[in-house]
Amino acid sequence: MKISRICLVASAGGHLSQLLKLGNAWETYDVFYVSTLDSAGNKLRKLGRYYITGECNRNHPLRMLKVLTMSLKIIRSEKPNVIISTGAAPGLIMCLAGKLFGSKIIWVDSIANVEHLSLSGRIMRPFANLVLSQWPEVAGKYRKVEFVGTVV
């Protein structure tokens, strides 16, 4: 598969900081960013195309529906070949929406998850093409989860 467009998605804050630390990995590709808060847009604006979906979690199903709607619009418009996410729920939603349209998915679980994969990571694991944990002990607990090092 030829990679022509990469979607980089993460919730604002620590998830986004971890994702941006991987920046050298995609510097030769056409990328766009997706995050959750307008404050993240200030940082992403300097990097290229970006979208803000809004924040959500499992306790707010209507917000999740809004993020899903936004995610589907972004996927249809941008048509990414690959989606890379460090989470959380909005990243999961974007990855699942992209999977419906044929995107390959790479999930990088947050370094904060030292004992087990995050809930979003556990949900994404069967659908992702690659799931990475930043802890070898965590990767060893799950099938289809790899450890290749830490981001931070």
If you had to describe this structure to a student in words, what would you say it looks like?
The protein has helices at residues 14-20, 38-44, 61-78, 89-100, 119-124, 136-139, and strands at residues 5-10, 30-35, 50-52, 82-87, 104-108, 130-132. The chain is of the alpha/beta class. The chain has a six-stranded parallel sheet with strand order 3-2-1-4-5-6. Strand 1, helix 1 and strand 2 form a beta-alpha-beta unit. Helix 3 packs across helix 4.
Largest sheet composition: 6 strands, parallel
Count of DSSP E strands?
Answer: 6
Mean pLDDT: 95
Q: Strand share of the residues?
A: 15-25%
CATH fold assignment: Rossmann fold
Binned, the helix content reads: 25-40%
Order of helices and strands: EHEHEHEHEHEH
Helices, by number, come to 6
The top level CATH class name:
Alpha Beta
pLDDT under 50 segments (min length 5)?
A: none
Write the layout of secondary structure elements.
Layout: E1 5-10, H1 14-20, E2 30-35, H2 38-44, E3 50-52, H3 61-78, E4 82-87, H4 89-100, E5 104-108, H5 119-124, E6 130-132, H6 136-139
Parallel strand pairs: 1-2, 1-4, 2-3, 4-5, 5-6
